[in-house]
User: What shape does this take?
Amino acid sequence: MEAVQRQIRSKAAALFDEGTIDLFIGFESGTIPLRSRPCFIDAAEASNAGPVDRLVWNSFCSNNLAAYLQRYYENEPNRRKKRETPYKRVGIAVKGCDCRSVVALVKERQVVRDSVVLVGVPCAGMIDRRRVIGLVDDEVSGSTEKPDGTLEVVTAGGRTHTFDREEVLQQACIECRYPAPEGVDILLDAEARRPGDGGYARIEAFEAKSSAERWEYFQTELSKCIRCNACRQACPTCWCKECFADHTDLKWIGMGNEQTDAMIFQIIRIYHQAGRCVECDACYNACPMGVDLRTYTKKIVRDVEDLFGYLPDFDADSVPPLSTFSEQDSDSFITDPEHKTHG
Assistant: This one.
């Protein structure tokens, strides 16, 4: 990890020195254990000595940084008028999932690809903070990543716990099929973890349950939702300038945290991710209540792949299914809702 960190700092410094970028987005040390936080360094700051030394890379860089990117490319208030100021030139450190999200945003014209410098970081997987805390059953006061691939955690009670990092990785990282970013401008010299199997076995197991069991699970998860919108804000492809849930007229749902409102909000948000979700778990990681909707987002991914042969990957030329139409598209979900499309 330290070697990757040195490379990120070196590349960021070089990009600023060359005048290639106005801003670099990466990670810096967080203020609480088991977390690194997004870091933003602009050219004015970079002109001073040492700002890139804030950049870190470790097993806690789990945020999908693409979520911060598109706001730098928002249109001018008057869209009929030619843009008066140039787009910012942004350098950004991207894992495989971040990179796939950037490609999705470029396709949807939310990011200007020529103004972005993608610094690709082959990903060894990120540690699941919730899993670690659950295993130590105490407040974590500090942690250290060891060269032998273990994580040492110290609790507030003074106890030390040691974990093999593979045992406490995020589920998204274990299942990830694209741990190494592709199509980037700069690819760092590092080894990515082995590709996962996509995790579709979990979806098949869930589909095998009765409708009553599936509905009970959904209700149980959504009973925890407080409608804080953290999932929406953390998701890189939830980019609508005005969310349907925030409309003050022609309201779809109420603004409170009634369970029915929370359920409708999440159902619509999940469907909005069809052809967009890269399974980065940003929504789950951001949720303060631990609401786990990954079963549903992953099912959307699997359905889009099965029905349309589309998966959000690194292919900048492929067209998202919701942006095109083919007479061969399946309509069984309309004519035969109970029709099994898988297997």
Remarks:
- Residues 2-17 form the longest helix (16 residues).
- DSSP finds 13 helices and eight strands in the chain.
